[in-house]
Amino acid sequence: MPARTVLVTGAAGQLGREVVACFDADPAWRVVACDRPALDLTDRDAVLGAITTVAPDAVVHSGAWTAVDACESDPDRALAVNALGTRHVADAARRVGAHVTYVSTDHVFPGDKQVPYHEWDETRPVNAYGRSKLAGERELDPGSTIVRTSWVFGRHGTNMVKTVLRLAEAKDVDLRFVDDQRGCPTAAADLAGAVHDLVAAQRPGTFHVTNQGATTWYGFARDVVTLAGGDPGRVRPVSTADLDPPRAAARPASSVLDGAALRLGGLPLLRDHHEPLAELVRELQA
């Protein structure tokens, strides 16, 4: 049986690189990796040209503008990349009959729910980034797959784990992280594996995919410092309202995602986030 082809947008990002690696390791798939500047999602002709030329069986659309505060300052650019760009991807995929899997975010929710959000909960973003990603979800055909995730960390790109390790190198400096925002940290490599499986099965619909175990940014930072052999007492809690300078964009106070669609569909949930976190800290310190 000939290999199927998957085209990955955002292929140089921290998730995109792991998605490419997952499909590269599977002989049933041939991977075409696309990223800026080779593929500008806001350029309709470029997107249509790339996807219709390759004519893939599947598209993993992980390309996005994810700088939350920058999106707040430039909401038009956020919409151009995350919403209109997704329209272009969906249009091109439709022309060649490719199944689309779109990576979305916990920021589509307001964060005022006391229990985890499941896939059928009402969306109501509180920032421009969340609004642009939700708009992207709405550009997809009914048979597409939406993977919502949160607090991604990994070997590639910029993320909280690398930030904490860098800040912890400065001795005698307290590290302050907010303790009033809750979510589920998610390892990019674990998420990529789940994306691969959903693509391979062409499972339509919305799925919440995170590692298990909710925490706060404060708790997460303490875990990173502890795993690195440091003193977790250096990490101090601070409220979002007391951040100096304040963040430009509001954040959902609690964006813990319940993977109900996976759980009720008999599909495996990702492991507890402490396991891949420990593996990553060891790798980054090696």
From TrEMBL:
Domain RmlD-like substrate binding: 5-285
Enzyme class, first EC level, given as a word: oxidoreductase
Pathway: Carbohydrate biosynthesis; dTDP-L-rhamnose biosynthesis
GO MF annotation: an example: dTDP-4-dehydrorhamnose reductase activity
GO biological process, one term: dTDP-rhamnose biosynthetic process
Superkingdom of this protein's organism: Bacteria
InterPro entries: dTDP_dehydrorham_reduct, NAD(P)-bd_dom_sf, RmlD-like-bd
EC number: 1.1.1.133
Keyword Oxidoreductase found: yes
Keywords: NADP, Oxidoreductase
Homology family: Belongs to the dTDP-4-dehydrorhamnose reductase family.
Functional summary from the UniProt entry: Catalyzes the reduction of dTDP-6-deoxy-L-lyxo-4-hexulose to yield dTDP-L-rhamnose.
Name listed for the protein in its UniProt record: dTDP-4-dehydrorhamnose reductase
Species of provenance: uncultured Acidimicrobiales bacterium
